[in-house]
Amino acid sequence: MQIRNSVKAIIIKEEKILLTKNRDHEGDFYLCPGGGQEHGETFHETLLRECMEEIGNKVEIGELSHIREYIGKNHEHSAIDVNVHQVEYYFACQLYETERMSFHPSNPDQHQIGIEWIPVNDLLQYRLYPKELRKYIIRHLNGEKTPIYLGDVN
């Protein structure tokens, strides 16, 4: 078993966050755009590629906001994620202003069915993974200090 790195974008504009909308047997769920680092890629290269694949837009990458570990055997989906250990790096990002605001993903994830702007203050009403991230995004938008390392959370 290997530990997998994943790099994610937190894109907030006008108090809304851009998320991929996904669907599984439990219903709709949301994720920050991004994904797995490939051999030979830097985090920034991974994030730029993944954003083009999932949202169809270029992003400007800012500061590292959060690091989250996911050790599957410790969480609600342990039956299928028992061998998963992933470290996710969340960066504050912005869409390039010159980019069209229409989104055409070039290679969406298997469960991805769309892209949505969700009001940040409504995040607790949505099934966003990791769930713990919701409160930190809300706190950050409200000017509160938040931790970078979130631990093994879901």
TrEMBL record:
Cofactor annotation: Mg(2+)
Limits of the Nudix hydrolase domain: 2-142
Matches recorded under PROSITE patterns: NUDIX
Xref: Pfam families: NUDIX
Taxonomy, superkingdom: Bacteria
Annotated InterPro entries: NUDIX_hydrolase-like_dom_sf (IPR015797), NUDIX_hydrolase_dom (IPR000086)
Keyword Iron-sulfur: no
GO molecular function: hydrolase activity
Keywords associated with the record: Hydrolase
Annotated protein name in UniProt: NUDIX domain-containing protein
Organism annotation: Lederbergia citrisecunda
Lineage: Bacteria, Bacillati, Bacillota, Bacilli, Bacillales
